[in-house]
Specification:
Its EC number is 5.1.3.20. By secondary structure, the chain is α/β, with parallel strands linked by helices. The chain has a domain of 215 residues: NAD(P)-binding Rossmann-like Domain (Rossmann fold, 3-Layer(aba) Sandwich). Helices cover 36% and strands 16% of the residues. It is built from ten helices and 13 strands. It has a seven-stranded parallel β-sheet with strand order 3-2-1-4-5-6-11, with helices on both faces. α5 crosses α7. The longest helix is centred in the N-terminal third of the chain and has 22 residues. The radius of gyration is 19 Å and the shape is globular. The relative contact order is 0.14.
């Protein structure tokens, strides 16, 4: 059995689809299944059992001998949520419980960290574990992810194999339920479809022109391919960046979305909301050398390739991965 937490969510559901493609059908899907708005993500997927998030530890204690691998993808990911107690419960304490059981039951573990741990990038974007305690995330979500990374590195007892993945700006199918937290591509598609144009945040930084703020956008299909690689690799434990390795502008992103929709680009600029302006990242780019050094050789989708696939195969036909 392979456990996937956050199974009905964006990345978790795409991972299950990818596991099914590889012939893994004994999947234990863990999530808060009371959130009906994302359950369509599991339609058509082969799953052995659904387990409520609150029941998972009791389930694992009973079934641990049959569990071969755990992907802990589930988390509270809302960067605009400032109730630290929520993140402490769902992102820190829950992850510690999973880690400790993986140690006790000798189960390999891959868990979701985040590029939000890098804050404004004062220390750069190098996945050097010695730098992790020096990072300054910009919000409680990033703090919670960094806190768990620091805790994991400090543990004397670790799973036989483990990896924390610092996801950068992931986009792709099955993210429709994320609301404001969905990717800019998702919002651009729907805004263009409705109005024929797209609004982007104006730059409030002298070094960046409007629309030329840069992020590392990574297609979800690349993310789940890396997860599969690590499940098969099972050595070189540690914390890894997971981005495309190439920063691109929001203007590039929106232009690619217009092109995939076969619509002439029309972009307007609006002020960045005051509540996020002082916490806005103008540049992120994952250093991917560490993952490459352990043998991951597959190319990543370019921004244009990823958006073309996402728009034409999923957004336009309203399909799931």
């Amino acid at each position: 059995m392979i456990v996937v937490t956050g199974a009905a969510g964006f990345i978790g559901s795409c991972l299950i689809s990818r596991l099914n493609q590889e012939g893994f059908n004994f999947i234990i899907a863990v999530d808060d299944f009371s959130k009906y708005e994302k359950l369509d993500n599991l339609t058509g997927k082969t799953i052995q059992e659904r387990v409520e998030r609150s029941d998972f530890f009791a389930w694992l204690d009973e079934n641990q001998e049959e569990v071969e691998f755990i992907f802990h993808i589930g988390a509270r990911t809302d960067t605009t949520e400032f109730d630290r107690a929520i993140f402490d419960e769902l992102n820190v304490q829950y992850s510690k419980e999973i880690w400790n059981r993986c140690v006790a039951y000798q189960i390999p573990l891959v868990y979701a960290s985040s590029a939000a741990t890098y804050g404004l990038g004062e220390q750069g974007y190098l996945d050097d574990e010695a730098l992790i305690p020096q990072l300054h995330p910009l919000n409680p979500y990033g703090d919670s992810k960094n806190e768990f990374d620091i805790w994991a590195l400090a543990q004397e007892k670790k799973p036989l194999f483990w990896a924390g993945l610092k996801f950068f700006n992931v986009y792709g199918p099955n993210e429709y339920h994320k609301g404001r937290m969905a990717s800019v591509i998702f919002h651009a598609f729907h805004q263009i479809q409705k109005t024929g144009k797209m609004k982007l945040f104006r730059s409030h930084h002298p070094d960046f022109k409007d629309g030329e703020q840069m992020r590392d956008f990574v297609y979800v299909k690349d993310v789940v391919d890396v997860c599969i690689f690590l499940m098969n690799h099972r050595k070189n434990s540690g914390i890894y960046n997971l981005g495309s390795g190439k920063a691109r502008t929001f203007k590039d992103l929106v232009t690619s979305t217009f092109n995939a929709m076969q619509i002439e680009p029309v972009i307007d600029f609006i002020d960045t909301p005051a509540d996020i302006r002082d916490k806005y990242q103008y540049f992120t780019e994952a250093s991917m050398d560490k993952l490459r050094a352990i043998g991951y050789a597959q190319p990543f989708h370019s921004l244009e390739e990823g958006i073309e696939n996402y728009v034409t195969q999923y957004l336009i036909p309203n399909a799931y991965y």
